[in-house]
Each structure stands twice: as C-alpha cells, then as structure tokens.
Write a structure and sequence with these properties.
Blueprint: H1 27-45, H2 52-59, H3 63-83, H4 87-90, H5 93-112, H6 117-145, H7 150-175, H8 184-203, H9 213-218, H10 242-267, H11 269-277, H12 282-289, H13 291-300, H14 309-330, H15 333-361, H16 367-380, H17 384-396, H18 398-426
Helix pairs in contact: 1-5, 1-6, 1-7, 1-8, 3-6, 3-16, 3-17, 5-6, 5-8, 6-7, 6-16, 7-8, 7-12, 7-13, 7-15, 10-15, 10-16, 10-17, 10-18, 11-12, 13-15, 14-15, 14-18, 17-18
C-alpha cells in the first residue's frame, strides 16, 4: 500500500464527510472502455518502432533522424500535457476522449503515406497532442468510475498506458505482414481507433462525464468550504501538503528515468538489434524492442505491497540497465534480453509504487492535472536524453553511445533508490 495518505476520494467531501453518491451507469464497462481507449492510443503512437529501419531507408535519414522522428511525438506530447493540464477538470471527459481518438486516427493514417521526415514529424506531433489530452482525462475517468479504489485506478492507468506502449511495436511488426511494410500497420490501426469513437458516445452518458469535484462540494448546501491556511483562496480539498508534493516530485523523477529507457527501446533498439542479430524480421524486432515494456506492464497486473518496493525496484532497474547497455558492445543478444526483462520488471515495480503514492496524495479536484504533471516530466525523459543519444551515436557509434547512456540512467536509478530508502528509514 502507498505510504502517502489520500487527501480525499471522489466520494469524500472537503471536510471528510461523504456527499450523496450519484449512481453511475455501467461503471465497469465504461472503465474497461476507458482503459482500452488509453491502450489503443498509446499503441498507435508506437506502431512505428519496428519499422524505423525501413523508414530510415525510405526517407533517407540516419540514426539522428530516427531520434528526431521519435522525439517530435514526445516533445508535442510534453507540450500538450502542460497545455491541457486541467482540460478534463473543466471539459466533459467524453468529448475530450472522442476528439483525441479521432485526431490520433487521422494522424496515424497520415504516417502511412509520409513522403518526407517533416511530414512524418508533423503527424507524430498531432499524435502527441491528442494523447496528451487523453492521458489525464482517461485517468480521471477511471478514478471516478472506480470510486473509493484509488490504488486500482492508478494501476489500471499504468497498465493501459504501459501496455499500449509495449504492444505498439509488436502490433506494428505483425501488421506489417498484411501488406506494404510501412503502410499496413498505420492504416489498420487508424480504422480501429475510428471504431472506438462511436463506442464511447454510445456507452458513456454525456451528463455523467462532467467534472464532478465542484458539484460534490455544491451538493452539501449550508456547509462552508474549509480553506487552506497556506492559501485562503484554496479549499482544503485542493491543498496539497509537503508530503504530497514530495511524492509527486519523486514519481516524476522515476518516470523520467523510466522513459529514458523506453525512449531507447522505442527508437534505436530495432536498428541495434537488427545489427546484432543480422535480421530484418519486423515481428522479431518489434517483440525484442518491447521486452522492457512488456515486463513493466506485467508488473502492473500485480497488486504489490510494501514500503521497500521503490528502492528495490530501482536497484533492479539499474542492474538491468547496465546489462542492456553492455549487450551491443559484447555482441550478446541474450544479455540484451536478460537486461531488458530485469530493467523492465524493476521499473514497473518502482513506478507503480511512486505513481500510486502520487495519485493517492493528489486532491480529487487536481487528479487530472497531477497525472499530467507527472507524465510531462516522465515523457521529457524520452525526448532530451534520446536526442542526446542520437547525436553521440552519430559521432562515436551506436554501441558506445548506448553503453554510456545506460550507465547514466543506472546511476540516476541508484541515486533515487538511496533517496527512497533514506525516507523509509526516517519514518
């Protein structure tokens, strides 16, 4: 369980009393559909991973061009997370998700026919903005649909997003067998995304997808709102104590390290693996590039407990990162596989603990904005470090660059593990 207490739940008022509950229609079905939507959006953004060796040749780009193509999505996603930070706190969640699904479908289809790197990057940027709008919105919807089960809603958010990121490269490799290598996955998945839009409209009632925090406070007439002593303009339900802010910062830092690893696997790993294994099999390259993410997603299926989850997970993350980074230099594909599985499992354990604590500590009215803030820093980890990796690889070679990159990420994990262990001891 999280060691950071939740300030309130969607069913709890500002002073701790319970406001009248509003019965929701088909909450389990809607929670499943919301998770499926998040999964499908993140999978769409990562279909290109095993196709990058072919995209390199078709567009005439090098390793740095691949990192630019990948980072165009990440940077737009980052901008969107900041721009849309409170989007679902003020707009109807159903409307936001339908718009995000439609925009992602159009951008994914555009990737199939991109004639240049600029076109490809523009379509990826649209994907990033749309997914940014959906991330906090989907998480907020799950928090409402799974009222009183904040830990489950947090794990389901991570499972849907990390599962989608993991499945994207595998689906891209498999769907490439349907036709023209670089077109078939994008065309097929855009059709699936378009089918989700009417499903959301049919299943989720518009009136139940409104922001409910303000309504919950208004549902108790005659009771004055409690104000935060630090800021009299902020209600107690909106105030975040120092422990909550610390939990949010820690989750963001763990996320940054996590997505530095994911960025490597989703951009340059297919080219690296293609050289190590001397193969152009897209399904195989997609599967191997996804091992880290599959291991991470598997950890989200387990309701892990214990205060030592974060330091233990970060330690495993660091060990796996070093093994993965050494694999290209040693020309050892087996070491890459072992390192990927170990790093992914450790990352999954650590991020589940850190993200769960941050979500539980966030006031209900700031849930979506807190999730977006954590993900904004998280996705920054798969943009700047990966761009730097691409630049170093251009001059020093891919294998040495990956080894140095892995050592830096592992060092960061060790620092975070020590920090987390010290906080546990102090308690």
């Amino acid at each position: 369980m999280s060691t950071i207490p939740a300030l309130a739940s969607p069913a709890t008022g500002a002073a701790g009393t319970t406001p009248p509950r509003v019965a929701l229609h088909r909450p389990r079905l809607r929670a499943t559909l919301t998770a499926l939507t998040l999964f499908s959006l993140l999978a769409a953004a990562n279909l290109a991973t095993p196709l990058y060796p072919h995209i390199e040749r078709r567009l005439g780009i090098d390793s740095f061009g691949v990192t630019v193509a990948f980072s165009s999505y990440v940077l737009s996603l980052l901008a969107g997370l900041l721009l849309f930070r409170r989007l679902s706190d003020v707009l109807n969640r159903r409307t936001v998700l339908v718009c995000a699904v439609t925009a992602t479908a159009a951008a994914t289809l555009a990737l199939a026919f991109a004639p240049s790197l600029a076109w490809f990057c523009a379509a990826r940027a649209v994907q990033g903005l749309a997914i940014a709008a959906a991330t906090g919105t989907g998480s907020s919807a799950l928090r409402v649909l799974l009222a009183g089960r904040a830990d489950l809603s947090g794990r389901l958010t991570l499972l849907a997003t990390s599962g989608g990121v993991a499945a994207g490269p595998i689906l891209g490799g498999l769907l490439s067998q349907l036709g023209i290598v670089t077109a078939a996955p994008f065309v097929a998945w855009s059709g699936l995304l378009l089918a989700l839009a009417p499903a959301i409209l049919l299943i989720a009632p518009h009136r139940e997808c409104r922001q409910e925090a303000a309504g919950a406070r208004r549902a108790q007439p005659g009771r004055p709102e409690t104000r935060s002593a630090a800021n009299p303009m902020t209600s107690a339900a909106d105030a975040a104590p120092a422990d909550a802010n610390s939990a949010i910062r820690f989750a963001a830092l763990v996320g940054f390290a996590s997505f530095a690893l994911f960025g490597l696997c989703l951009s340059l790993a297919p080219s690296l693996l293609s050289e190590m294994l001397a193969t152009d099999s897209l399904p195989l390259l997609g599967l191997l590039a996804s091992l880290v993410l599959l291991a991470s997603a598997t950890m989200q299926l387990l309701p892990l407990r214990g205060a030592l989850r974060a330091p233990l997970g970060l330690s495993l993350f660091a060990a796996g990162m070093l093994a993965l980074g050494a694999a290209p230099t040693a020309s050892a594909p087996a070491l890459f596989v072992a390192g990927s599985l170990l790093a992914g499992a450790g990352q999954g354990v650590a991020f589940q603990a850190a993200f769960g604590a941050a979500v539980a500590a966030a006031p209900p009215s700031r849930h979506a904005s807190t999730v977006n803030l954590v993900y904004a820093v998280t996705y920054l980890g798969s943009a700047l470090p990966v761009l730097g990796l691409g630049l170093v690889a251009r001059s020093a070679g891919l294998a040495p660059a990956v080894l140095g990159f892995a050592a830096l990420v592992a060092g960061g994990c060790i620092v975070l593990a020590v920090r987390s262990a010290r906080r546990i001891v102090r308690r």
